[in-house]
Amino acid sequence: MGLITGTKENQTWKLATTAIGSIVFSEDTFLSEAQTLWLLHLLLCRRHGLSEPSGGIATAWFELFTSEQLRKRESFTLTDYHTVLIQKIGDMGYVKGLAALVIRTYFTDNCWALAETLKKQSTHKEHYQFLKAPVDKEMLPVYAVYLYLLWDDLFSNEQQLSLDEFADKTCFFKVTNWKEADTNIWLNYLSDHGMVQVDRYTGVPMLLRLQDTQQVISNLYS
């Protein structure tokens, strides 16, 4: 989830917090705020590199929240998710248990239950549905931080990106489960707070980053 870094010297691991880890530790040590839970969820679902076929930092999470096979359904089951994982990593003996574990974390209070990322369908308790990332005012800094971290990871040599390219390469809007109206709220927030210049005159919105990542991270809990 990008909270710590580790280096090994003489058989000893030395751990340190990242910029994100430091502010989370300072502001929400017990990982109980909605902002923290959503950010950590998003970071666990992020793409690893731009090679094809696409893969995630944590494969099980990336496949669950970006798979078209699951998202095109009104709801999905554990079996559906298990099948997606098998297609990605093979029919290993641990895959079924891994699938169950990942789903369980989103209904466990000391994991992600309070974030309300998934819900059980009311008529079929073993059927699950994706919920969208909330676009309440206090949550918008989370997605700004996520944008900048993805940009650093995947487009470090680019100062400007088209929104379509960013969405396609990062799976940002699959994971957030946003519609156009939600996206516009977020883009307006980024523009109003001087984080990104949004140019819509070319047809497809173009994003120009205006701040450095540390500036954006410092406003995570603002």
Question: How would you summarize what this structure contains?
Answer:
With 222 residues, the chain is of the alpha+beta class. It has helices at residues 19-27, 34-44, 59-66, 68-71, 78-89, 95-105, 140-154, 163-170, 172-176, 180-192, 213-218, and strands spanning 4-9, 12-17, 76-77, 118-120, 127-130, 160-162, 196-199, 206-209.
Which descriptors apply to this entry?
222 residues; alpha+beta; globular
Account of the protein in words:
This protein has 222 residues and is of the alpha+beta class. The chain has 11 helices and 8 strands. The protein has helices spanning 19-27, 34-44, 59-66, 68-71, 78-89, 95-105, 140-154, 163-170, 172-176, 180-192, 213-218, and strands spanning 4-9, 12-17, 76-77, 118-120, 127-130, 160-162, 196-199, 206-209. The strands form 3 sheets. A 3-stranded antiparallel sheet has the order 3-5-4. Strands 6-8-7 form a 3-stranded antiparallel sheet. α2 (34-44) runs parallel beside α7 (140-154). The chain is globular and about 45 Å long. The two termini are 21 Å apart.
